[in-house]
Write a structure and sequence with these properties.
Length: 1011
């Protein structure tokens, strides 16, 4: 499980103990410098390109760095060069002094002048042109004071409401004003090349300086103990007493002490910058920190305390930050005899004992006493520690158990075959000792009982022990076999992983207030209560499963040292989990950025590894074998929500100066930051792009948002952040921007597209209607033809047959012979009707015409019709003539022409009563001409004018078929003189190459019939 997410929960649990915690506002002055968290950014590592002269923080949260080559803006992770907008310029690129005023203005002093910057723009002050600005300060009334230098006279100026009034023209301040300070009782102090002045209130008064061979040049002023004014001169540290300066006493003052910078932090610690490193003074104690210890450089240039209480140190080679750890370490620099502690024990008298391979250490009231052989300790190596009910401290050494009573060590008691010996004080006095081969009981200085492990059922010795609270009872933890309860000489009960105990080695034991046992294992924190085992793991909210030890504090919390850091769980949450095993806990996790050195995975040969001192502080051995201390009453909780700023918008890899982004912007990057400098690497972010993101995006510690799929529209980007303690700035920062549409993404283009689409749909609709109408017309024509065929052939024949049959029925009784003749005639008529019906059906099925051209087809049709008429008498003579060179016709057109010509021949053969029938085909250049004539009885002129006989569809059907392909059918007839019919088809239609398009509808219709 990722541990980074657990840092956000620190405030959830720690703030519940607000009565014993405080907001981060300064550093704990009782700690040495090397016990603070320290970060360094150096020039040699490329973080800055020039030495830093000054540092300030503005109201918006940014830290500003003035360098020899310009101004930098710093957010704890990135330092970016700042340039005035609109082509404006600072008086000089060499920035000498910065100051952040309460109204948010940044005052910028340079080598040759003064400027100020706020959201309104850059203001230049010509009164300071040519002056080097040494110091800037704002008094309680909001007046900004400027100390400047230029030969022959320095200048002290007050800027109020854009008005500048200056002092020092009379030369009394000398040529430079180095430092300004307003003390707690509103005295205003000036340090100049001529001396130190109490400038106001009242008439300026010069402070009497010590008489030395060389003149004293006061450089920096600060406030000391009891409101006394301190002066760093570069050669010594002075304090003002009753108007005179005298040496400030520094215990153990280092050699070559040359103070140049002073800072009194909010908790009273005094920081002194020198040419040889940094000094920290508090409570009569002095500790130093130099480049050899990790400082970016030895020569200190400036000191600054930010709004969260971190102390910043400028050196000639870089930038350093000091802040308070939640967990501090105690090492050889605090007086321990070794960096490799074996065990830690909190004694009844308030002292803390630390066993190590190089002696026994006793810590009390901040002082360390080390016991070696010279102090009576038999061996230098002090391994395990325990204190019995009589107050005797027992030390496990290679020589045996050594008692410490009344300030002296006693004779060692040898425990056979003991290599690893965690010991536990018995409930009724004495000690239980886990030897290699047996469980041993020690009373006084004498071994009274031994219980071999093989007789107790164990394969190896117990690695952890704790008295059960019952007489003679003791809990035993093993490396692999789980936990056992021992009483009255035997193991009463074993608990292993099969019973629900956490898997792996048992690393720690703790008795609960109700007598239940907590067992820290590699598989979680197990609880044994009333014979039942339950285990708390990452499934219930632990950041990780490996638990090294467990301990209650005095303020309602339980602490666990785990494989991913130190965990604090509110006791009420553990109680809720015991009542409902499905409930979750919400612990606070302290990691390396909180001072945890390593994780809980150290060797467990000795112990104890944690202890609770009488003052409530927890002492424990960390993963890298150091001694760590945490005070549950004094947790540096950062309650200041971090200011959040959106810094840049980068569109398609270019910095966007206009928030109306161009069309087709694809790659968008939004850079943002949160200005909490305690542990900026642990600041966490959430953002949401209104108009695109449905919910908040958890960005973790990432300070950029990326988008590659934004559509043209207006957007609003909102980002929030939390600090290292999980305190969120819910307001955050917002940015509105838009992406312009391309022409084809505009509303008018979309409307035009919609209109075009609707028009296209309307056109398709109209086309479909036209197709449907044509198909309907074709269907209507086909129905008409079918009606015509049925009417003119089948129906008429059947009607005639019915008349004949009715006549036969009427004369059947009177004239049987005549009736028989009528029936035979009716039968013959019906047979003809059947033949005609079959022929009509063959025409309706639209069978493809046989192979051959039009001449061959009409010849065959005429011959067939002539043979069919032989049964009714003498058939007419049929003759076909052809004029012109034969030419190929479109198959579909040929079919249509053939059907018309065949219908003309059929009518001539059936109804004309002709003796001769002629058909003529002319292949002319302008047209195709088909001429059919007979010498029969002809057609009545009125019938021709009417377009056909009423109720008959032959003539209209042929005309309709001709019109469909652009042909023309004309009739000429006279009663008794025969009939002529002429079908003409234009050459472009009959012989043309574009007929495929003209006759495609006919082809589809024919294909549909064939399918």
């Amino acid at each position: 499980m990722q541990t980074a997410g657990w840092s956000r929960r620190i405030a959830v649990t720690v703030l519940t103990a607000a009565a014993c915690c405080r907001c981060i506002s300064a550093l704990n002055p009782s700690l040495a410098i090397n016990q603070y968290a320290h970060n360094a950014w150096t020039i040699r590592e490329g973080f800055f390109n020039a030495p830093i002269n000054s540092i300030a923080q503005t109201k918006d949260g940014y830290i500003w760095l003035g360098t020899e080559s310009g101004l930098l803006r710093f957010d704890g992770m990135r330092a970016t060069a700042w340039k005035p907008p609109n082509g404006e310029q600072l008086p000089s690129n060499s920035v000498t002094k910065l100051y952040g005023a309460r109204d948010g203005t940044l005052w910028i002093g340079t080598f040759t002048g003064l400027a100020s910057w706020n959201r309104g723009g850059l203001v230049h002050y010509p009164e300071f042109d040519g002056y080097r600005i040494f110091t800037l300060v704002e008094d309680l009334q909001g007046t900004v004071w400027v100390g400047a230098g230029r030969r022959p006279n320095g200048s002290l100026c007050a800027i109020e409401a854009a008005k500048v009034r200056c002092y020092g023209g009379d030369g009394r301040l000398g040529d430079m004003v180095f430092s300004l300070h307003e003390d707690s009782i509103r005295n205003f102090w000036v340090a100049a090349s001529s001396g130190v002045w109490r400038w106001s209130p009242g008439t300026p008064e010069r402070v009497a300086m010590p008489h030395t061979k060389e003149p004293v040049r006061a450089m920096v002023i600060a406030e000391g103990d009891e409101g006394k004014i301190l002066i760093a001169t570069g050669s010594e540290l002075l304090q003002v007493v009753r108007g005179s300066a005298e040496p400030y006493p520094i215990p153990g003052k280092p050699d070559g002490f040359h103070p140049t910078r002073l800072l009194r932090d909010r908790d009273g610690g005094l920081w002194v910058g020198t040419f040889k490193g940094l000094l920290h003074l508090h409570g009569g104690r002095v500790d130093t920190y130099s480049r050899s210890a990790g400082l970016s450089g030895d020569s200190v240039v400036d000191l600054f305390e930010d709004r969260e209480g971190s102390v910043w140190v400028l050196t000639t080679e870089g930038l350093d930050r000091f802040r308070e750890f939640a967990v501090s370490t105690v090492s050889t620099e605090q007086g321990l005899s070794s960096q490799i502690p074996f065990s830690v024990l909190a004694a009844q008298d308030g002292s803390v004992w630390i066993g190590s391979p190089d002696g026994l250490n006793r810590w009390k009231n901040g002082r360390v006493t080390v016991y070696h052989k010279t102090n009576g300790l038999p061996d230098e190596s002090a391994r395990s520690l325990v204190q019995d009910s009589d107050g005797t401290i027992w030390v496990v050494t290679p020589s045996g158990l050594v008692p410490f009573r009344e300030g002296a060590f006693g004779a060692p008691t040898s425990v056979p075959n003991t290599q690893v010996a965690p010991v536990s004080a018995g409930a009724k006095g004495g000690l239980w000792i886990s030897g290699e081969n047996a469980l041993v009981r020690l009373e006084g200085d004498r071994i009274t009982q031994q219980f071999p492990w093989r007789q107790l059922g164990g394969k190896q010795f117990a690695v952890r022990m704790i008295a059960s609270g019952e007489p003679e009872g003791v809990w035993l933890g093993f490396a692999a076999d789980g936990v056992a309860y021992f009483k009255d000489g035997r193991i009463r009960r074993w608990y292993g992983s099969k019973d629900g105990l956490g898997e792996g080695r048992v690393r720690g034991l703790m008795l609960d207030s109700d007598g239940a046992l907590w067992a820290a294992t590699e598989g979680g924190l197990s609880l044994i209560r009333n014979g039942r085992v339950t285990t708390l793991t990452s499934r219930n909210g632990l950041p990780c499963d490996l638990v090294d030890w467990v301990m209650d504090d005095d303020y309602g919390s339980t602490w666990l040292y785990t494989g991913c850091g130190l965990v604090r769980v509110p006791r009420k949450e553990l109680d809720a989990w015991k009542a409902n095993l499905k409930s979750a806990i919400h612990p606070a996790l302290f990691e390396s950025s909180d001072g945890i050195v390593g994780v809980g995975n150290r060797l467990i040969g000795f112990g104890p590894r944690c202890a609770k001192a009488s003052d409530g502080r927890l002492w424990f051995l960390s993963g890298l074998a150091t001694v760590s201390v945490i005070d549950p009453r004094h947790l540096p909780i950062n309650e200041l929500p971090p200011p959040v700023h959106i810094e840049h918008v980068i569109a398609d890899h270019n910095l966007a100066s206009n928030l109306r982004l161009p069309p087709l912007t694809r790659d968008l990057e939004i850079d943002y930051t949160a200005l909490s400098f305690v542990a900026p690497e642990r600041n966490r972010f959430k953002y949401k792009l209104v108009g695109r993101d449905a919910d908040w995006v958890d960005a973790g510690t990432r300070r950029q948002a990326f988008y590659t799929d934004l559509r043209p529209r207006n957007y609003r980007f909102h980002v929030i952040a939390c600090n290292n303690s999980g305190v969120w700035n819910e307001t955050g920062d917002t940015l509105e921007f838009s992406i312009a549409p391309a022409y084809y993404q505009t509303t008018w283009f979309a409307a035009l597209g919609v209109a075009a689409g609707l028009a296209m749909l309307w056109g398709l609709f109209r086309l479909r209607l036209y197709q449907i109408s044509r198909e309907y017309a074709a269907q209507t024509a086909e129905r008409t033809r079918i009606a015509r065929e049925l009417h003119d052939t089948l129906l008429q024949s059947f009607q005639a047959s019915l008349i004949q049959m009715q006549a036969a029925r009427n004369i059947l009784d009177r004239r049987p012979e005549k009736a028989v003749q009528s029936l035979e005639k009716a039968i013959s008529t019906a047979a003809g009707a059947v033949a005609e019906g079959r022929s009509a059906i063959q025409d309706l099925r639209a069978q493809p015409i046989g192979k051959g051209d039009l001449v061959e087809l009409l010849t065959a049709a005429g011959q067939e019709m002539g043979h069919s008429d032989e049964a009714h008498g003498h058939p007419p003579v049929f003759r076909l003539t052809v004029e012109g060179e034969r030419r190929d016709l479109d198959p579909v057109l040929q079919d249509e022409v053939y059907r018309i010509a065949r219908e003309l021949l059929r009518n001539a053969f059936r109804h004309a009563e002709a003796s001769q029938i002629e058909a003529e085909i002319r292949y002319e250049n302008r047209q195709l001409r088909v001429h059919v004539r007979d010498d029969g009885k002809g057609i009545d002129l009125e019938i021709l004018k009417a377009g056909g006989r009423a109720g008959h569809w032959g003539l209209p059907g042929m005309r309709e078929r001709a019109n469909r392909f652009g042909g023309k059918l004309e009739f000429w007839s006279e009663a008794g003189a025969g009939t002529e019919a002429v079908l003409t088809v234009p050459a472009a239609v009959a012989y043309g190459t574009s007929n495929g398009g003209r006759f495609s509808f006919l082809r589809r219709k024919k294909a549909a019939h064939e399918s």
